[in-house]
Amino acid sequence: MSALSYVPVLQARPHAVAAYGWLPPSDQRHIAPLWNLPPRPGAVRPALTAELRKDLGAVSEAQRHGAAWIDAPFEDEVQEAALAELLEEYCVYGRLQPVTGPDRSPLQQSAAFAAAARGRRGIGIRVRVTGEWDAQAAEGVRVLLARAEPEDQVGLLLDMGAVLADRPDAGKEALRALDALFPLAPWRDVCVLSGGFPRVTAEMLEHGLHQETRRDWALWHEIAQSRRAYVPLLSYGDYGTQHADAIAAVPRPPDKQGGGPDWGFLRYTTEREFVISKVLHKGREWNEKIAFNRAAARELVELPDFRGPTAGAGETWLRDLAMGVGTTGAFAKWLTVGNAQHLAYITHTLRRL
User: Nearest CA to 140 among 175, 105, 169, 102?
Assistant: First the structure.
C-alpha cells in the first residue's frame, strides 16, 4: 500500500461489500479497506462458523483487485475460537491481512500472528484512542512487536474512533499517539482512522437537508499541517458515511429484516460536509412515500457540489431516483449508495493530492 492508499473502515456486511463492488477496479486498487466482522453474541457452532465463512467469503471475493485488512474487534471467546480456524484459510488463499491489537486476548493475538506468518501479506496492529492518549498503550504495542517475525510486514492502524464536536482535541491526541508509536518499528503502513459521520436523529431532519462538518477530514488536515517528518508516510482512513459505532451493530436475524424505523436518510459527501436528506421507509401511502423519496434525492442532486452521474455509481443512482427512474430502495440500498459515492469521492480526492 502506498502512502496515499485510502483505508475505509467497513462492516463485513452485504451493503458495504456492495458499495465497494460498485467501484471500478481502477478505484479499488487505491483502497485497502479495514473490514470488520460483526459481533454475534450468543451464537454457537456450527452455525457461527457458517456465518463467519459467509462473511469472510464475501469480503475475500470482493478483494480480487487488492489487499485488505480483516478484523473482528467485538468477538467473544466462542467467536475467537471459530475465527482462529478460518483466519489462516482466508489470509493464505485470499488477499486478507489479519489485525490484532494490545487490547485483544492472547488467543486472538496468537491467531492473528499465525495467519500472518502463513499468509505473508502482513499484519495490522490496531491501536484505539477514543479519548486522551494513554502513554502506557505504547508498551502494549512494544510487546506485540516483539512477537513479530523479522520478515513480518507490520502496519499501524491508529483508530481515533468517532471525532465529533465533543472531541475538539482529537487532532492533538492523534499527534501525541503518532509521536509515541511511529518510532517503535519500521512500519510498512501507518494509517490514521477516524469517523466524522454523526448519529442522525429525526429532529436533525425536520427542516429539510442537514449539513454536518466532516470532522474526520478536518482532523486529517490538522495532522498534515503539523509538519511532522512522518506526515508524508501516513495513509488516510475513515468510517465512511456511518457513525463509528455502527461497526458494533449485531446483524438482524433473517426474520427481522423488515423492521426498523419509519424513516431513513440519503447521504452525500462534499469537500467539507456530509449532507443528509430524509427519506421514508414506511408509514405513508405508497405513492406519497415514493414522491417524498424522489424529492429528497432531488435536493441532493441540485446541490452546487453534486458531482453528477459521471462521478460514480452512487451519483448515478441518486440522479435516477431524482428523475423517477428505478425503485426508491430501503435501508440497505441507502447505505450502499451513501458509502459508494463516499468511497469514490475520497479515492479521487486522495489521488489528486
Answer: 102
Helix and strand tally (H, E) in the chain? Answer: 11, 11
* Cis amide bond preceding 46, omega within 30: yes
pLDDT digits over 199-213, tens only? 999 999 999 999 999
Instruction: Please give the grid coordinates belonging to residue 25.
Output: 477496479
Pick from 294, 298, 299: nearest CA to 328: 294
pLDDT, tens digit, for every residue of 61-98?
Answer: 999 878 899 999 998 889 999 999 899 889 988 889 99
In sequence order, what are the beta bridge partners of 6? Answer: 31, 236
Check: CB of residue 332 under 8 Å from CB of residue 14: yes
Q: Cα(318)–Cα(328) distance, rounded to whole angstroms?
A: 9
In angstroms, how far is the first alpha carbon of the chain from the final one? 16
- Asked if 154 and 187 touch (Cβ cutoff 8 Å), the reply is yes
C-beta of residue 188 within 8 angstroms of C-beta of residue 145: no
User: 241 near 342, Cβ under 8 Å?
Assistant: yes
Cβ density class 247-281: b for 16+ within 10 Å, e for less: beeebeeeeeeeeeeebbbbbbbeeebbbbbbbbb
* CA separation for the pair 15, 8 (Å, rounded): 14
Return the closest-CA partner of residue 66 out of 12, 114, 27: 27
Give this prediction's pTM. Answer: 0.95
What are the backbone dihedrals phi and psi of residue 262, each rounded to the nearest 5 degrees, phi first? -75, -15
